[in-house]
Amino acid sequence: xxxxxxxxxxxxxxxxxxxxxxxxxxxxxxxxxxxxxxxxxxxxxxxxxxxxxxxxxxxxxxxxxxxxxxxxxxxxxxxxxxxxxxxxxxxxxxxxxxxxxxxxxxxxxxxxxxxxxxxxxxxxxxxxxxxxxxxxxxxxxxxxxxxxxxxxxxxxxxxxxxxxxxxxxxxxxxxxxxxxxxxxxxxxxxxxxxxxxxxxxxxxxxxxxxxxxxxxxxxxxxxxxxxxxxxxxxxxxxxx
Amino acid sequence: xxxxxxxxxxxxxxxxxxxxxxxxxxxxxxxxxxxxxxxxxxxxxxxxxxxxxxxxxxxxxxxxxxxxxxxxxxxxxxxxxxxxxxxxxxxxxxxxxxxxxxxxxxxxxxxxxxxxxxxxxxxxxxxxxxxxxxxxxxxxxxxxxxxxxxxxxxxxxxxxxxxxxxxxxxxxxxxxxxxxxxxxxxxxxxxxxxxxxxxxxxxxxxxxxxxxxxxxxxxxxxxxxxxxxxxxxxxxxxxxxxxxxxxxxxxxxxxxxxxxxxxxxxxxxxxxxxxxxxxxxxxxxxxxxxxxxxxxxxxxxxxxxxxxxxxxxxxxxxxxxxxxxxxxxxxxxxxxxxxxxxxxxxxxxxxxxxxxxxxxxxxxxxxxxxxxxxxxxxxxxxx
Lengths: 240, 383
Known about the structure:
The structure holds two protein chains of two kinds.
Chain A: E1 2-7, H1 19-30, E2 35-40, E3 52-55, H2 60-72, H3 74-82, E4 87-90, H4 92-96, E5 100-102, E6 108-110, E7 117-120, E8 129-136, E9 145-152, E10 155-158, E11 166-168, E12 181-182, E13 184-186, E14 189-192, E15 194-195, H5 198-201, H6 203-209, H7 211-216, H8 226-237
Chain B: H1 2-26, H2 35-42, H3 47-54, E1 58-63, H4 68-81, E2 86-88, H5 96-110, E3 117-121, H6 127-132, E4 140-144, H7 152-155, H8 158-168, E5 176-179, E6 193-194, H9 200-209, H10 215-230, E7 249-255, E8 258-264, H11 268-276, E9 284-288, H12 307-314, E10 318-322, H13 326-335, E11 341-344, H14 346-355, E12 360-365, H15 367-378
Helix pairs in contact in B: 1-5, 2-5, 4-10
């Protein structure tokens, strides 16, 4: 049984992020692997290990609330990440993995500090980074592009030698206004600003995360994922 | 002095804008309800502020994620049939430019005597910008019908939107804010009125207006009912004719012998409502989804629809998807194990339905898709 932890599904549930959990279980089923999803909410004690962790994005107002609870799960997260197990953090939860988040009201929300990066929001809300986007990813399954939709006010700045998840097509897209980096990649941990059903549009992301499982499933028929490929291509065909 | 100067100035402007609007309609380049306002926005003066000052009317702004157009139409009907004069933006053009267009195109009718009421549907993200131009010594009423996740690319976060609306009130001595008891209410600053739908008087009015089948319309009518009470505006509900829905909000059309029920469905909340109202006897469902500018380019909201409701509602039905984002919706249905046909092309889908002798078709369509269908059905073409 493949065990999936969905962190804060009630608090961090903006913009169709739960579609990723829906697709992950569907995808596993398609390749013949049974799975179960455990919702981890505020004050839930974690007493077991998981194979996959997912956490979505949420509004500024809930990040403070989630942060306090997130802290109690820091050791669990570090252990999971360092064991090279897959985990995906979208937007708000991605920001909380860093050192701090300076929100649009100029309030400093401390992050877990698992990674050396910080995020700050410009005070002018009209400067949100919004739109369909794509970036280059090192893994090639249905090509090496990742497509999605971003909408965030926070600008993330990676420090040290942290690697972004990919290189965006434009510097007006991705983590901040200065470099083309999008998200964060560390072992099998992904941070990203791409909201919504990321996995549905990008089977290559799942291929990267679940590579070990793929190797075990020898009879995998790639044609199964044809509609997802079409959706991916449709977004790529749009003018950026 | 202001009035005399403005009357001449605004009359000249209206003269030209009415001509432009007429030409747009004549050459079928649009409905002429947006460009006049857009042109006024290009000029250096704040015309919205000038119009607000010019007309001594009771101002009512209606906003929210869902139900703005229907609620504005219903309030218009109640006021007009009660003998009041009303200036409104009934075309659904609800950004600043739409309100400017309504003012400029309606100016000549009211330049001598202000209408009793100015009722404007306002896009929720445009509320702060419009209130900003409103004279601080006048009183307005704002109805916030509901706020929920809509187009990701236009609205960002709801919290931020509420903060902006709250901020826009701060310089006013008096305003009337109407809300319903909901999750978002707590984020608004007091004072506010809560829409009341519990009184016997309200229930009687619903019966008289025949608002029994559409739950969400009853909810929105409770705002109107509470507003009219607070403003002490008398409406004799006995004499009001039954409310006729705005095109694309549950109306029936016919093409090639197929009875079509068209339902605007532009975000998860409206999708869930329309799924709940899907008639048991409807056998054929068309989901028509585009990603044009009025729809927003983001379709991640598909994944915020209630999955269980979707599965239950479409069980045993023939489901078709069409539009520029049909593949995205088809993928969702596929993942949920709901059988569907992805034709992408609307014309092919409708021709398929008529050629196979379908008796009915229940359509869930987002903004540009609904607009397209209303136009085509109104022209009585075989789409």
